[in-house]
Amino acid sequence: MRLIERILIALCTLLGAAASMRAHAQEFPVKPLRFVNGFPAGGPADFISRTIAQKLTELGGQNVIVENRVGAGGMIAAEHVARAPADGYVVYLASSGVLAFHKHLYAKTLVDPFKDLAPITQAVAVPEILAVHPSLPAKSVPELVALAKTRPGKINYASAGAGGMPHLVAESFNIAAGIRTVHVPYKGAAPAVNDLLGGQVEMTFLDIPILLPHIRAGKMRPLAIATQQRSPLLPDLTTMTEAGYPAVRADNWYGVVVGAATPKPLVMRLSDLLVRSIQAPETRERLRSLGVESRGNSPEEFLKFWRAEYERWGTLIRTLGIKLEN
User: Fold this and answer.
1) Which helix (H) or strand (E) holds 157?
2) Number of domains in the chain
3) Domain assignment present for 25
4) Distance from C-alpha of 272 to C-alpha of 51, rounded to nearest angstrom
5) pLDDT one-digit tens code per residue, 185-239
6) Which stretch of DSSP H or E encloses residue 259?
7) At 137, which CATH number?
8) Rounded Cα–Cα distance for residues 190 and 187 (Å)
């Protein structure tokens, strides 16, 4: 067989395979999907997963099973998804920690996010709120900064754990304001909130869904939201930008990813289904009721955002010299 004939046969084979994959993607899904997250049932990630899964079930015509694979700050779930068959049926609601922080924080990670995972879409953004215990004599960000400058190293703040978004945004506030507050890390948001309510710690940055009930009950005082726009749930609450600190911005975002080997036609089909699920009016309204903002964008747009966040937070982590043990 001549060389030109072999080339033509190979080309026809490749074109046939591509056409078959496109046809398969148009039919996808034909069986239940597994929607994995890395956090316990009942928390924000679980609520977000189940809210999106409900609409995804409707639009995709197949059941979507939410799986909570807890451990290592979401990396257990990331490893599971990265090693799963690359057929589009296992997707992961990944936190900003897994995608943008962990590679900078740990000497070794279970997965390399850019090598082992492929972007589908940014799902949501969860704003961080700066709140203080009512006993702290500060009713605004400028008052807090002035107070902290008279008490260097005396005011402490709670986080949900070293290296997480609350820790990093609080340290970015320290740098931007030229103050020194003391980090008190907890094993999760719940114990951090409990100690803030009890007055054992004086301030925190945490997700709006976690703090909102206590703010509404008057048990803690919000000073600002770390986003560029105010929240419709707390319209009178100033932003950190309005308070004079535009660099202190933090959305604890989540993105949907799959294993890196997933074929492009399946990635695009998943993106279409998930963006429509995320942007559906009923999904938006349910998420917004807790202060969670729906996103939904193309894989290319999400990857661009993801890389920018990876670089932004990596610069801060290196500046602070934070290194964590696995």
Assistant:
1) strand 156-159
2) 2
3) no
4) 17
5) 998 899 999 999 999 999 999 999 999 999 999 999 999 999 989 999 999 999 9
6) strand 254-259
7) 3.40.190.10
8) 8
